[in-house]
Amino acid sequence: MKKLITTTIAAFVLSSAAYADTIKVGVIGPFSGPFALQGKNFKAGIDAYFALHGNTAGDDTIEVIYRDVPQPDPAQSKALAQELVVKEGVQYLAGFYFTPDATAATPILEQGNVPMVVMNAATSAIVTKSPYVVRTSFTTWQTSTPIAKVAKDAGVNKVISIVSDYGPGVDAENAFKAAFEKEGGEVVEAIRMPLSTNDFSPIMQRVKDSGAEAVFAFLPSGPTTLGFVKAFNQNGLKDAGIKLFAPGDLTQESDLPALGDQALGMQTTFHYAVSHDSPENKEFVAAAQKAIGNPAELSFPAVGAFDGMHVIAKMIEATGGEQDAQKAVEAVKGLSWTSPRGPVTVDPESRHIMQNIYLREVTKADDGSYFNKEIQTFEKQGDPGLEAAK
Amino acid sequence: MQTVFSIAVDALAYGMVLFVISIGLSVTMGLMRVVNLAHGAFAMIGGYVASYAARDLGLGYAAAVLLAVAGTVLIAIPIERLLYRRVYGAPELTQVLMTIGITFCIIGIANFVFGPTLKTIPLPDTLRGSVDLGFRSIATHRIFAIICGLVVAAALWFLIEKTAFGIKLRAAVDNAAMAAALGVRTEIVYAVSFAVAIGLAALGGVVGAELLPVEPYYALRYMVTFLVVVSVGGAGSIPGALLACLLLGAIDTTGRYLAPEYGEFFFYLAVIVIVILFPRGLAGRFK
Questions:
Q1: Which of A67, A245, A322, B64 has the lowest CB atom count within 10 Å?
Q2: Residue A351 in contact with residue A127, Cβ under 8 Å?
């Protein structure tokens, strides 16, 4: 009798995968706490995808289960990923705003036969941690490299680099230095400042003393960027003709209303601007703004999540709903589609997204609001960070 | 030489902003003996009220500042009556737990009501832009903050040391039972000083908003810095807090100029040294 029950259960469990109607996707991100805005954007992107394309892939229905990691916390991220795989039976892991959270969860992918779709975390190395990682966001190397050419084209030869002292900041510093020296420019000084810095006046004094013609800066979006840009203007650097170059983290759509006039004319490079002019993006923005509630809060993690859901839907179609991580990942290698940000391809080698990087300038719209206006396109950018690491 | 002057000016401005925000905490901790971890939350409420008044109601800056101080005090009165009054004289741990709880509640409410994005307080034209000092330019707003700090310091010192109310407050703090027996209405004295401390927090939140922008996590993000200022200065001492702010501002600013990669190393090194040498703070009172 006992054997019969066991076989019945076994048969049921085995067959359930093939007939499964509902495929569960576990999304880990910061849904509360200081970074809740980013988690909200994940959710808006996913909701927008379902609103536009429905929540089915092939014959299967997609169900998303959210788990909250409020701040970078690798241990918690790993524990939640495990719980999602073991207890909830998710077939896909997705989300991950912070690099350490994504890296911590990679060891369970092969064991659990689960692919991971990184919707934000932007350190190059994550895709090397497991063959089942696919990324639909960007890397700091990817967004920081083109600005070096922009700086050189603007006639700048000496640059001082100022970054926040943490992983992505160091990445940005290296990316810019490598690209700018390749263009024939010189980074005269590289400053790393603590993440908690809130008074930037002494840093601005360093800039003045360094004799650089321009500043390359990287800070995570949020309260510090406001202080940084203000300090740059108020300490007379802008008036002295010193230029400011940065990846798009400094002029995030969610920070622009606060930055306002201070940021006007600032040039940054990034993979996505909410203002991107394409029919796909208009559709996406309308759906995502509806999902997020307050239109002003929409920014880049939403597009990473939107495309992440697209990749997962393709994976589910390719495997017919069966749990087969390898087949799923193979199916999306080289996959190309038109994302709200423009044409994108999953690089078959690195499983990282290849995309256009745009040069944008902060511009005042007719209704008095500020937006990132795309003025130049760097097409089909891969991730130079992986090359550099080799 | 120009660089030295320049850093000195930055240090002064940063120190005074710290002073304006932290002094209210010094009053609650030193004079009322309440470890008020919700101080940052009240400063944040001040910032939100000012931002709302200036941006959404279109009031002028001065009106927004007054409304922020008055509004925050008004919000704080029921909190004082219902919650704080229970923990006067309670063990520190009880006070810490209750006030941190209040902080989390306020963070949640602010996040819900105003959203997670940054809120700015638009400055009037007179405070916008920079002033040329000859050897460098400095934001006009910083000068305003320095003046605010000096005025607050002078007014508080006068209130506590020179007025009848100050005498009652000091009496109530040193021995509440004895003061009450002599006819001092300690409840009122406490309520008024609490209101003053909250008003100062709100003022600090508004004046310091250019440096520490208002967002829901403001309440916790800068709390450590405020506590450090109070413990280094000596809780309850106005000159002590002023001295601590200027000293810490100078060390932090110089460190940030000379060796930014060391982060806040010099800041906390200085704190450790000062606390070892002066366990009750630079101007702490002896019990």
A1: A322
A2: yes
